[in-house]
Amino acid sequence: MSGSTIVILDFGAQYTQLIARRVREFQVFSVVLPCTASLDAVKALDPVGIILSGGPSSVYDTDAPKADPAVLQLDLPTLGICYGMQFMAHHLGGRVVPSGKREYGDASVVVKQANRLFTDLPTELNVWMSHGDSVVDLPTGFSVAAESGSALASIADESRRMYAVQWHPEVAHSKQGTALLRNFVLNICGAPASWTPEHFIHTTVESIRQQVGTGRAICGLSGGVDSAVAAVLVQRAIGDRLTCIFVNNGVLRKSEFEQVQRNMREKLGLNVVAVDASERFLTQLNGVSDPETKRKIIGREFIAVFDDEAARILKDEEAKGELTHDSSGNEVAWLVQGTLYPDVIESSSVKGPSQTIKSHHNVGGLPENMKLKLIEPLRDLFKDEVRRVGRDIGMPEEVLERQPFPGPGLAVRILGEITPERVEILQNADDVVSQEIKKAGLYRQIWQSFAVLLPVKTVGVMGDQRTYAYTCAIRAVHSEDGMTADWVPLPYEVLRSISSRIVNEVHGINRVVYDITSKPPGTIEWE
Questions:
Q1: What pLDDT shows up at residue 326?
Q2: Which of 2, 11, 323, 454 is found 20 to 30 A from 402 (Cα to Cα)?
Q3: What is the CATH number of the domain that holds 181?
Q4: Is 206 a catalytic residue?
Q5: Helix or strand (DSSP H, E) at 106
Q6: The domain containing residue 283 runs over which residues?
């Protein structure tokens, strides 16, 4: 969007995506670029403002992430956050030194000099800090705007519309953080609040139409909201030249292969080809315990299946005489995936130097030499934004409110080796969890709830007989976008029902435990 975009330069903070999220909440379009993006790449987006993210480094580290200092000379409103403040001060002639007292977590900040960034905010702010360095000497033209108990907390040069804060206003722990960001984005930058799901749908459909041209595409359906919304958007762009493929990879949930086909065909009107490749996947997974290896195997096999189906579709079109051979190649050349922004952030440093947490099968698990080109229309969206887009295109709530399910399926919920026996055990246990959560009326209130099969056997007693069977862990979390999560204090009666049913109904499990770990320090999935 020309003249209405906020560009966020990522210096490696795990919170960068939250900055983008907050900006989107103001209905303003934001683009996250790696800090190493060229000045031309930044200017090409015609931004109305720049935000410099935080990051784990010191500006003096030899391997510190570096942006082109010329970005500070663009005569645009600029906000530095944490490391971004230090980068701004350092490159404009100030001085940054290691703090005598590091600040991590909750802190109190006192506003010393009012400016537009603090409009309608109290003079004392509750903020969340995370820094080891501090600005001690200001660049020319800057003044101290706020202080904490041990450091300069904010500096500003109002004449150049340059502001910086040492804390993270994007996180929920900074109580007035959203208001501060709103002041910057809407008041200081003057960004128009025009980015809506309706606008995203229109521009995305047009972009896909131009990208695919006269070609054909296939979409890897999982049955979840992400791939379903992606498929509907692409269908709007190219119509019946989209074929959706739903693959049984052998690690789906109980009865999911049949249920997803019905939902996608009957409720969304998609052209779905179902492929039972369970034996193929399980053979490749045989004897594999490492979670990253599992993800990469599944990603590789998915692409292989999609390549095979693409070749079959092309052959069928040729046989029917409906394939036109022209310079653009009217053939299956595109693969549609429902990759989301959190998948990208956790998988790789595609948008900056953020540390890799795990490879997502749509991102880190893809082979280098793919025959199909990727279309990822949701790559820069969060889950709740995808649901809003889905509602605007008329998708049923049953599909939109489906809890997230990992692309590698139960393979990353079976710790250790994958076997058909262990898959069946977990399918049955997970089905009990789903039934009881829905019965309690909690399904739509919880981000994710599921069972995990542990490679741990314990002694039990059933019918006066000794048992030696697997342990099952139950996981339920609240989350806004999947980037952070809190464990859900499920009612004791619900936990009791889940435990009782699993132990009594699922052969192979004799013990049930409940996971009370938040993210961070854990992840939502166990692998």
A1: 40
A2: 454
A3: 3.40.50.880
A4: no
A5: strand 95-111
A6: 197-400
CATH code, domain with 445: 3.30.300.10
Which of 90, 131, 168, 361 is the catalytic position?
168
Residue 492 is encoded by which pair of tokens? 């004791």
SS3 143: strand
Task: Please state, rounded to an integer, the average pLDDT across all residues of the chain.
Answer: 87
pLDDT of residue 404: 86
Q: From 166, 188, 210, give the residue that closes a domain.
A: 188
Q: Is the pLDDT of residue 367 over 60?
A: no
End-to-end CA distance of the chain: 38
Q: At what angle do helices 197-212 and 383-392 cross, to 10 degrees?
A: 90
User: CB of 151 within 8 A of CB of 102?
Assistant: no
In DSSP terms, 184 is beta-bridged to: none
Handedness of CA 252, 258, 261, 263 (dihedral sign): negative
168 is catalytic: yes
Treating both helix axes as pointing N-terminal to C-terminal, what angle do 225-238 and 383-392 enclose, rounded to 10 degrees? 40
Q: How far is CA 244 from CA 221, 234, 299, in A?
A: 6, 10, 17
Distance CA 306, CA 366 (A): 12
Q: How many domains does the chain have?
A: 3
37 and 142 in a single domain? The answer is yes
DSSP 82: T
Residues 160 and 224 both lie in one domain: no
Element (DSSP H or E) covering residue 313:
helix 291-319
Q: Give which of 430, 486, 348, 292 is closest to 34, Cα–Cα.
A: 348
Domain with residue 250: its CATH number is 3.40.50.620
How far apart CA 482 and CA 383 sit, in angstroms, is 8
Could you tell me the maximum CA-CA distance found in the chain, to the nearest angstrom? Answer: 81
**Nearest residue to 233 (alpha-carbon basis) of 381, 382, 338:** 338
Are 378 and 227 in contact by the 8 Å Cβ rule? The answer is no
- In one letter, which amino acid is 125? L
Identify which of 300, 253, 294 has the alpha carbon closest to the alpha carbon of residue 408: 294
> Residue 19's CB: how many other CB atoms inside 10 A?
27
Distance separating alpha carbons of residues 291 and 251, to the nearest angstrom: 14
Q: Would 406 be classed as within a structural domain? A: no
Q: What is the pLDDT of residues 102-116, one digit of tens each?
A: 666 788 899 998 899
Q: 82, 189, 219, 472: which is the annotated catalytic residue? A: 82
- Give the H or E element holding residue 197: helix 197-212
